[in-house]
Amino acid sequence: MTISYEQELYENIISNQLFGGLELVVSPRCNLECVYCYMKKYNKLDSSPIISKTTIDKSIEVFSKLKKGQSYSIEAFGGEPFIQTDLIEYILQKTKNNEQISYVLIPSNGYYTNNVESLLTEYPKLQISFSIDGIYNEHINRPKHPTCNKELDYDYLFRLYKQFPKRIGFHPMIYSKTVENTYKTAVWFAENMNNPNDVENSLYLLPVRNPKNWDSNTIHILIDELHKFKNYCEENHISMNSTKFNIFRTVGCPRGTTCSLQTTLSVNWDGDLYPCHRLMYPEFKYGNIYTYPKWDFNVILPFYLYHRGNSFLCQSCSIQNKNNCAGGCLGAQYEYWGDPFIPIKDTCLLNQKLATEVVDA
Amino acid sequence: MNKISSLMINSISSIQIPMSLQCQLRCKYCYIRDNNYKIIPVDYDSIFKVMQSAVEFFKITSKETSAIIPWGAEPLCNWQNIEKSLRYAFTQYPGFVQTAWSTNGLIAPTKYLDFINEFIDRIIYVQISLDGPEEVHDYSRVHRDGSGSFRQVMKTVETMYNKCPNLGNKLIFKATLSPEQLTLHHFYKSVHFFLTEMKLPLDPTSLVMDTPYSPEAIKALKEDLDRLKEEWSEIKAINKDATIGLFYKLENHQNPYCSACSTQVEVDLDGNFYPCHAPVTANNIKKYFCLGNVFTKIVNDKAIYRTLYGKYNANLIRSPLCNSCCVNTINPTFCYICFTDSLISTHNVSFFPLSTCKVKQVIGNSFLEWKNDNIL
């Protein structure tokens, strides 16, 4: 049976070694209402949709087949994934002895940690990235839903970090409304982690790239704050070379997007496929995990073939010429423009300033 | 209005208006997917109101030459009102106002032919949609009852050649083939028809670009080009100027950009303006491309920016695939694909069905073969 050119191209991309991730968006359910969150519109608390075990099985089956024996990782995305501990444990059980799956990453807000220690002990493939913004910003950036009466135990999270080396990371967001706390927040993380050899690998500082977030004033503050933290790192012998510490280094990412969109198959709670968890809009749904190969490859291929520097505007931009541009978030760009591939001016300004005044400085 | 919007609006010298929203045909590949847009009566007052407001808003008559283009469904379904509007524009507006239109060629009433002869200097072109010989044409271009339209069109062509001899090269043809038709070898039949029966110097066959092509369709296109190559000396013996249109475009196409938003906009009967006619009858892309309104004079800066961005950047996005493509080495501008088509077919203004690349590669490779064999 002949297959379409689009399907052939898609399968070639997926079977590439660099295409290494299966993302299962398990549920939008969350106990927080983070100000910059793009998933909260789906959050219906305990009425939220949840992925089924059958869909998890099917996703692993289809993706394993598409990967043609190559190894890959799984990310269980939310909402807060650990609210569905049973499903997380199911994924861990399912993957424990599957040699094709290298690790399972859970981004978590750190509130649901009852079973986390035992899961980390029982399942060596489990890795966790805690999305916490630190004591100065957490209450502003990441307010709790009124129904949530849990408290965040920072000491416990940092204890886990030390107890399970290389398996725990932190992922604070840099948000314009709290940008003046960037330096002290970064120092707070570094001091609590207390391991100068590992900060660059486990602390992922990521600026929010939503529209209307950055302006020249807040960018100026951010640059100052990052310079202060850069000095702190130098004084404390903290290396800044890791790819995760890319806010301080030349981006140089060979992919078209610096996020994982082009190397990850994203499956949501209904088994529906979208370019990424932020682009879950009807026009970008290209299929369902149960209906392969009857997918609309013409919808997804543009996202896989896109390059952030591939426009007239970008080609005349000095930082793009040096491959120093972190690009924008395609979801945020879609929400602003109604088109995922048009850069947002504020983000361009942020990238330009970071590249010329932090990376090159 | 920001600077980009202002520059765009000042550059417009041509306005397209849906002066007829009726059509007798139900062509299979018609880009007006909603047939409700083919049954709407349009009165003179509505046309006049839009025309006046648009002319004023875009100040088109202050330009040395300008154009007011009636657009359909089928202009001849509302010719009386179109003629009245154009006559007004030609005689009442300052400057040199021109026009052009495309027609399905089903009818050519005397008043219509008289108008053409009277205003021949104002007419840029009259384009008749003709897909090829009867078998090919009647495959897609059918009446509501499914019957073909070839014979009526050929009768009109004959009438126009006879009654409007001064039209000359301004009478042009457009043939469009769908992927499905390629599998039926309609490409060969269409090209052969235009070059040997119509004896046109340049065959006008084109392919739809908003639909994926199956491997079978691509294979059939290659077979048709090979067959034409084998028969080329015989074709040349009949028509010494014969040229395959797609090869001509491949070799000579220089400007990858259409007139949308650079010199022309479409204004609908509600006064909304769009980069071209496609969004007017496609509800799923209307909002994206609505750039403003000539009645309220409100301009959507954001929509103008993203439309221009999509138009001028769309065809760069393909570059990861282009390095090894023969078309890219012959003439990359041949690859330009309509950005409204892109949005309709892939939900993405910057993209297109990728199998159209394969189609163009087949054309490019054949072109090189013909060149190497000194046939071209």
| Major sheet description of chain B | 9 strands, mixed
Strand order of the largest sheet of chain A: 5-4-3-2-1-8-9-10
| Count of alpha/pi helices of chain B | 17
Number of separate strands of chain A: 10
Description:
The complex is a heterodimer of chains A (361) and B (376). With 361 residues, chain A is an alpha/beta fold. Chain A contains 14 helices and ten strands. Chain A has helices spanning 5-14, 53-66, 85-96, 116-122, 138-141, 154-163, 182-193, 199-202, 216-235, 297-305, 312-315, 318-321, 330-337, 345-359; strands at residues 21-25, 72-77, 101-108, 126-130, 168-170, 173-174, 206-207, 264-267, 272-274, 287-288. In chain A, helix 1 packs across helix 10 (297-305), helix 7 (182-193) packs parallel to helix 9 and helix 9 (216-235) packs parallel to helix 14. Chain B has a nine-stranded mixed sheet. The termini of chain B are far apart. Chain B is globular, with a radius of gyration of 21 Å. In chain B, 45% of the residues lie in helices and 13% in strands. Chain B contains 17 helices and eleven strands. Chain B is of the alpha/beta class and 376 residues long. The longest helix of chain B has 18 residues, at 355-372. The model of chain B has no long low-confidence stretch (mean pLDDT 93).
